[in-house]
Automatic annotation (TrEMBL):
Alphabetized UniProt keyword annotations: Cell projection, Coiled coil, Cytoplasm, Neurogenesis, Nucleus, Repeat, TPR repeat
InterPro entries (alphabetical): CS_dom, CS_DYX1C1, Dynein_assembly_factor_4, HSP20-like_chaperone, TPR-like_helical_dom_sf, TPR_rpt
Domain CS: 3-87
Species in which this protein is naturally found: Pteruthius melanotis
GO CC entries: dynein axonemal particle; extracellular region; neuron projection; nucleus
Stretches forming TPR repeats: 370-403
One Pfam family in the UniProt entry: CS
Top-level taxon: Eukaryota
Protein name (database record): Dynein axonemal assembly factor 4
Coiled-coil boundaries: 104-165
UniProt entry tagged with the keyword Coiled coil: yes
Length: 424
């Protein structure tokens, strides 16, 4: 037989009901709690607590917090009103049974709808990812086709230019050959004229003069023919190897494709990290070059945190902090890991250090400052230092007043502070 938990305390406002249920030494988990619009049940064998609520509640936003041997329920009313009692009075067994079964059926239907919605959302995400991938591939294919077309046009233009050059060279050679033939024909005509002069004028003096002139002419003809033999096309160039040397670069990309400002910033960080390593981190000499980069270590810690490896993430952030202790995000992310590992004092220290580095307060670091205040406030509340935690949550609300989640958590902490003051 179950042992019914009868002892409980509750109070209400127009919009919410606050219920405190002692556990009598039992250990509860979220799986032991079931809540719907009108039905509330806590089953921790052998203890059992159930209540048919006086009016409907918003079971989606209502919360339950387990701690200090109690379960604290915050039940938000669907309609603002003051209840006469926590549970429905004068309800028969049949009505109670009907409400209980109806609550279970609604919870099952809701779980089924959520499962279907998640399935549909997952399919839509897959479809969107596939469409985005196809668009990227199509754009890449088009870019490659455009490059090929440009190269094809360039080669065609170069080929056409080469053909025109060959035609011009052939035309020049033909003109040169015609000029050579013209120069060879002229001395032949002169010889014929001299022979005709010899036959027409048999005078000795004139014949001697004619012979001399013919000899001179023949001599000049021989010299010209020798010059023609010597004036031929030059020999082709001797083959050789052309060596091209490029300026060495740290980055694999070409200078025209790089972003100089980012590269200089990266090199500056690398130099600073290398200086720190050479000064006081001699045990890290065996690490690779990228493992000595604080940004690379931060990304590695973020991946480990997402996988649930909080100790590995803390180690990555520790090494990054030793390399560069001026990055506030390293302390902020390490504080989140310490919260998961229940290292609450270290979480408070890292959040405080992040807030020190996030100065001056500007719009660009608002999100980081809100996270730092919330994480430090959460650590304070888990240490039951509700007053300090409330101060951090109120500071986060000043930075981001539209954040409903922080506002709800701050309201809960205010009630805990009031309960602490009343009990003291």
């Amino acid at each position: 037989m179950p042992v019914w938990l009868r002892e409980h305390s509750w109070r209400q406002t127009l919009t919410a009901v606050y219920l405190s249920l002692p556990l009598r030494g039992a250990r509860a988990t979220p799986a032991n709690i079931f809540c719907s619009e009108r039905y509330l049940k806590v089953s921790i064998p052998p203890f059992l607590f159930e209540a048919i609520l006086y009016a409907p509640i918003d079971d989606t936003n209502s919360t339950a917090k387990i701690g200090n041997g109690n379960i604290f329920f915050t039940l938000y009313k669907k309609e603002p009103a003051m209840w006469d009692s926590l549970t429905l009075a004068n309800a028969g067994k049949e009505k109670l049974q009907y409400l209980r079964e109806n609550a279970v059926l609604k919870a099952q239907e809701k779980a089924k709808e959520e499962t279907e919605a998640k399935k549909i959302t997952k399919q839509e995400h897959k479809k969107y990812a596939l469409e985005a991938t196809m668009k990227l591939e199509e754009a890449e294919r088009k870019r490659i086709e455009d490059l090929k077309e440009k190269e094809r046009q360039k080669v065609a233009e170069e080929l056409e230019l080469w053909k025109n050059q060959q035609k011009d060279a052939d035309r020049y050679k033909s003109i040169q050959k015609k000029g050579e033939l013209h120069h060879e024909i002229e001395p032949l005509k002169e010889r014929k004229n001299e022979k005709m002069n010899k036959t027409k004028i048999p005078n000795e003096g004139t014949s001697k003069i004619g012979l001399k002139s013919t000899k001179g002419c023949c001599g000049s003809c021989n010299i010209f023919s020798q010059n023609l033999k010597e004036e031929q096309l030059p020999a082709p160039r001797a083959p050789a190897t052309v060596k091209v040397n490029f300026t060495p670069r740290v980055f694999p990309t070409a200078l025209r494709e790089s972003r100089v400002a980012e590269e200089e910033e990266w090199l500056h960080k690398q130099a600073e990290a290398r200086r720190r390593i050479n000064s006081d981190l001699s045990e890290l000499e065996d690490l690779k070059e990228e493992e000595k980069n604080p940004d690379w270590l931060k990304d590695k810690g973020n991946k480990m945190f997402a996988m649930g490896n909080y100790l590995g993430a803390v180690n990555a952030y520790n090494l990054a902090v030793r390399l560069n202790d001026k990055l506030p995000l390293l302390y902020l992310n390490r504080a989140a890991c310490h919260l998961k590992l229940r290292n609450l004092h270290k979480a408070i220290e890292d959040s405080s250090k992040a807030l020190e580095l996030l100065t001056p307060p500007v719009p660009d670091n608002e999100n980081a400052r809100v996270k730092a205040h919330v994480r430090r406030g959460t650590a304070f509340c888990q240490l039951e230092l509700y007053t300090e935690g409330l101060q951090d949550y109120e500071a986060a609300l000043k930075i981001d007043p539209k954040n409903k989640n922080i506002e709800k958590d701050a309201e809960k902490i205010r009630h805990l502070v009031q309960e602490t003051l009343q009990s003291s």
